[in-house]
Each structure stands twice: as structure tokens, then as C-alpha cells.
């Protein structure tokens, strides 16, 4: 059972979301707040996911998430809001999902299922069978326009974000999905695909050239000719992985 905390300054919106979450029979509501001040006092070890509105009194839900991170609190985040123009910023904050008001029951269920698949990795649990570590699959399932597409992981060149969507680039084509970049990062742990920038994951096997850039950053030239930036945050790890 997922433990959820809701932050929204509209009581009716909170009640609607609580009702739909309880209908899934997979979520327990452990608390709620109507302002940032109260939400900042949450104990993130006692909750799995934070559902937060964008527009709160005086500040935004984006501000709340940034403040929680500064306090070292890292619950899974789902933005539940009437404003779709903040999706890009939300996913830059590593939100798992972004759902719009008025809430639809099927959409809420989809979000809960996404959280459930994400949380075992988030909490550092090992996916085991009879005590043995599970070998990562060589395939990845992605949702594209309500279809589930299966692609081979080795075919992925890189994964990036654009206008609130996640773009998966393979050797043959591009796929656009609403799943967040952090979701794919978790799914692809243990593979050759790693994060090199807050907005990009790359397949190490698809890099053909590393170009030094400014301030100790780099550009990666992929085998389709496109360039992917490497931020300073991930430079050291990349050097260790590739050995340059």
C-alpha cells in the first residue's frame, strides 16, 4: 500500500483526489496540507509519494519541491494541477508524473501504477527472486499515444526532454512519451544507459566522439551525428565509466 500526502489549497480538489486515490485500493492517505509551511514539516520516511498542486497561496508547488530537496527530503513527486504550462519545470525537478484537473479516474490509476513500479528502486530495494539479483531485461516498454511499444535497449542512442515530453531516440526513429526522464533512469539502471545531464540520458555504446566544451563540460557526438551536452555534475562519473 502506497502512503500518500496531498498538498493543495483547495479543499474540494483535495477531497476529489483522495477519493480517486482510495478507489485504486493501492493508496493510503497519511496526511494533507493547504500550504507550503505545513508541507515542509512532513517526514519523508513515512510517505512514499507527495501529490502537490502548482498554485498554492503565496508560493508554488515547484517552490515546495525545491525546498524539500534542500532539506534533504526526497519523496516521489506527482504534480496535480490545472496548469499544463509547468510540465517541463516539473519534470526537471524529477517528478514521476504530472496530472491535470479535473482529475480522471483512469489517469489517476495510471499514475499510481507508475509510482508502484518506480518505488522499489527509489527505496533502494533489490529486485530479487529467491535471494538472487535479477538480471536487467534487454528490452524496454514505453507508452506512446496509449500504445505500449517494446524497444531493444541497445538500439537507444539517447533520451532527452523537450517541451514537457520525454524523447527516446533510437537508431531507426524517435518516440515521444509522457513518462519522466527519472522514470527511465530507474528502469535502465545496470545497463549502458546513464545520465550525463539533468535533461539527458545516453547510451555509452552509442558515443562516437567526446568534444571538450567550456567550464569543464563536454559535448557527446552520438552515432546519428547529434550532440548531447554533459554537465559538470556528471563529468567525473562519465570519465570513470569511459576512461578519458
Task: Report, as a whole number of angstroms, the end-to-end distance.
Answer: 45 Å
Helix-strand pattern = EHEHEHEHEHEEEEEEEHEEEEEH
The quaternary state of the protein chains shown equals single chain
Strand content: 25-35%
SSE layout and pairings?
Blueprint: E1 2-7, H1 11-23, E2 27-33, H2 36-39, E3 49-52, H3 61-70, E4 76-81, H4 87-92, E5 97-100, H5 105-122, E6 128-129, E7 132-133, E8 139-144, E9 147-152, E10 156-162, E11 165-170, E12 174-177, H6 181-187, E13 193-197, E14 200-203, E15 207-212, E16 218-222, E17 227-230, H7 232-242
Parallel strand pairs: 1-2, 1-3, 3-4, 4-5
Antiparallel strand pairs: 6-7, 8-9, 10-11, 10-14, 11-12, 13-14, 15-16, 16-17
Provide a descriptive summary of the structure in words.
With 244 residues, the protein is of the alpha/beta class. The protein has helices spanning 11-23, 36-39, 61-70, 87-92, 105-122, 181-187, 232-242, and strands spanning 2-7, 27-33, 49-52, 76-81, 97-100, 128-129, 132-133, 139-144, 147-152, 156-162, 165-170, 174-177, 193-197, 200-203, 207-212, 218-222, 227-230. Strand 15 and strand 16 form a beta hairpin.
Amino acid at each position: 500500500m502506497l502512503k500518500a500526502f496531498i498538498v493543495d489549497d483547495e479543499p474540494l480538489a483535495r477531497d476529489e483526489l483522495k477519493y480517486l486515490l482510495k478507489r485504486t485500493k493501492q493508496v493510503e492517505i497519511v496526511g494533507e496540507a493547504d500550504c507550503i509551511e505545513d508541507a515542509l514539516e512532513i517526514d519523508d520516511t513515512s510517505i512514499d509519494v507527495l501529490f502537490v498542486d502548482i498554485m498554492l497561496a503565496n508560493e508554488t508547488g515547484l517552490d515546495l519541491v525545491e525546498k524539500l530537496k534542500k532539506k534533504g527530503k526526497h519523496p516521489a513527486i506527482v504534480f496535480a494541477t490545472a496548469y499544463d504550462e509547468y510540465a517541463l519545470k516539473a519534470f526537471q525537478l524529477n517528478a514521476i508524473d504530472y496530472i491535470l484537473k479535473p482529475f480522471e479516474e483512469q489517469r489517476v490509476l495510471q499514475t499510481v501504477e507508475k509510482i508502484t513500479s518506480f518505488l522499489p528502486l527509489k527505496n533502494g530495494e533489490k529486485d530479487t527472486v529467491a535471494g538472487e539479483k535479477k538480471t536487467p531485461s534487454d528490452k524496454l516498454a514505453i507508452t506512446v499515444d496509449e500504445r505500449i511499444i517494446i524497444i531493444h535497449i541497445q538500439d537507444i542512442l539517447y533520451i532527452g526532454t523537450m517541451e514537457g515530453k520525454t524523447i527516446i531516440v533510437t537508431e531507426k526513429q524517435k518516440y515521444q512519451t509522457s513518462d519522466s526522464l527519472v522514470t527511465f533512469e530507474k528502469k535502465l539502471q545496470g545497463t549502458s544507459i546513464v545520465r550525463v545531464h539533468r535533461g539527458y540520458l545516453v547510451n555509452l555504446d552509442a558515443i562516437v566522439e567526446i568534444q571538450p566544451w567550456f567550464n569543464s563540460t563536454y559535448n557527446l557526438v552520438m552515432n546519428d551525428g547529434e550532440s548531447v551536452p554533459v554537465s559538470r555534475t556528471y563529468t567525473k562519473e562519465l570519465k570513470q565509466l569511459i576512461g578519458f
